[in-house]
Amino acid sequence: MKVAKAASKQFKHILSPIQVGPISLKNRIFVSAHQPVLAENGLPTEEYIKYHQNIAAGGAALQITGAQSVHPTGMNEYNCLVNHDDSIIPGYKELAKAVHEKGGRILAQLSHFGATGWTGILDEPAWAASPVASEVMRVIPHEMTALEIQEVVEAFGSAAKRAKEGGLDGVEITAAHGMLIASFLSGYANHRNDNYGGSLNNRLRFLLEIIDSVHSQVGDDFIIGIRFSADEKVDGGINISEAKEIARRLESTNKVDYLNVISGTNLDRIQRWEHWPATPAPYGLFADLAKEIKDEVSIPVFAVGRITEPALAEEIVSNEYADMVAMTRGHIADPYIVKKIQEDRVEDIRPCIGSNYCIKQVLQSKPVRCLYNPEAGRSNKLGSILPTDNKKKVVIVGGGPAGLEAARVSAMRGHEVTLFEKSDKLGGQLSLWSNTPTMKEFKKSLKWFQLQLEKYKVNVHLNTEVSKYDLMDLDVDEIIIATGADAMELGSKKWLPKVYVNENSSIEIITPSQMLKSNITEFKKAAIWDWAGGEAGSQTAMSAAELLAKDGVKVEIISPFFTIAEDIHPTLRSPLYKRLLSTGVVFKPNSELKSINKDDLVIRNIYSNEEETIENVDVLVPWLGNQVNDNLYKELVESGLENIHLLGDAVAPRTVETATHEGAKLARKL
Ligand SMILES: Cc1cc2nc3c(=O)[nH]c(=O)nc-3n(C[C@H](O)[C@H](O)[C@H](O)COP(=O)(O)O)c2cc1C
Ligand code: SF4
User: Where is the FAD/NAD(P)-binding domain (predicted)?
Assistant: First the structure.
């Protein structure tokens, strides 16, 4: 690959090679272990292999597979790879070949989930150092006997042997995230009285035996890395000074080729979600921990955590915080990061905006998806963006995520594209959320789309509402209607809840989307009524709550669900709760709104029927769900025009991810 001059200068550290154990890696960017949830029966599928092959083609020097169980008591799920017997070897071979063909290197992350996995899949109890339950999984594990310890030690060795036979480049043993090995390492989780518990020496024994077992099976010409937490952030857990000692001890085995540093433990309710920080968490937030470890050892140290921009990656390597830098979600958003750096096209990198949609999917056992990279996890199925041999005039109405992606892909294929947007901004729901104090980062996605549309010469007309007559007058081949959806107003549909409204009420009623658009927060007390829920809607309602609370408005959130923001995944809900509850926002779950009086609201607990009055409310923000904006589409169809397509929320209100996917799919067919 020819590297552009400017790139080779500006990013000279991250583009430089590094020796990791027996292998020379071509640059310093790696993709840390992550489950794409694309396996079937524990084996890689075509889509799984394509997923990793794309990352290799994009130029990252190294990638690590998602955690795979080495023993039946350490299972996660069958849609992840499972390394319990030789049936995995053919799949490894295909995976290794696909990655090597594109110049990449790949390691298997070997794990035993301990108390953090799903038990019951194989009718086995969870195994751990001590019967300490994960606060999230809440399963009390079986305390392992000395014989069981030896069984797992051997299982790691056999699993590593299979990875080597499968042609992979090495293994990463995960001693992080509160999984089995971490449960031995950590004073928080290990309460044993035998020679595997107590002193650090004893707590390290299990990991050191695993390293010996793995090394005895694979020898020196196969990478062995260790992932571990340098600060578990729980009482009695591994802290940085203990982590330094662990790092020194691991290096002194002469069998470990690198240390991959992470923070927290999945055994803890809060830390469970914090090691994959969502926006607005700081960038590079665990790099300091990596530096502390790097100062202790001379083997390569890897850093991860919200490193989304090449400039930050460069800073981390050039300032010797770490030797390799993970841009993991960065590669889910855009697997071609390194290639674009090398070609001096950094501005073309589709930036990860920390939405954690990918994590939400995976933790629900669904294939990985990215909020606005429709190819993530489905590039094989979706197919490439190919130049057209039948150049058409394409008009798109609506500049939300569906319209933007349809415009981008159509224009990339060589069609002549015009996009009309009635508001003064592109982005639809993305733009709405980017108005909130905590989701400003979403603006990056809009900037990226804008740049791509400019680059591929899409004619964009903002502040332009078009009618069917305007469109009928145009000489075009394809019309795409992506006019989105709008929040429903109280009383506007028969199926919406019936609420008594006093006609002299002084309470202003404003939908959450209007609230985010107008940014007017001059109120004293607000009630957010999240009746409809749904991922996108609850997010809009919660963003409105945050906007108001930030400006000192007293906020109460009413919802019929068991918990507030039930549809928002814990990786986002946990920091959201921290922010809302620490600004005094009051939660009223299991409740519905009964009446809107002069200046108060009456709510009812849906289970006990008990009523409660919320006094002195001056604004009510009801989230009642969206309704489609498909009038223009219907009019065009009625007028007999052909080649009209309806996309995204205008079909049925859903998520940004669905919208961009539909745009991507349609534009490939035009
Ligand atoms: C979809 C997804 C799945 C993940 N699965 C694993 C895993 O199997 N093992 C692991 O050690 N870390 C896993 N992680 C955590 C990542 O390795 C990484 O630590 C985290 O994403 C933070 O890095 P980033 O900010 O560069 O994304 C996963 C992350 C994501 C996004
Ligand atoms: S879904 Fe969100 S967090 Fe995940 S890669 Fe895409 S932009 Fe980043």
Answer: 392-637
